[in-house]
Amino acid sequence: xxxxxxxxxxxxxxxxxxxxxxxxxxxxxxxxxxxxxxxxxxxxxxxxxxxxxx
Length: 54
Hints:
Helix content: over 70%
Strand content: under 5%
Number of helices: 2
Oligomer: single chain
Order of helices and strands: HH
């Protein structure tokens, strides 16, 4: 599940970044927020699985 979620978020972020000709800063900000949310989700998943201490 996390791997599929990660691929979907990366695809969305790439689509947003490819549209950076207009309002590039806004799209970059959205992509950055998505990656931060993804990182939090991924680390939380690892903690729940017991792969890292927390």
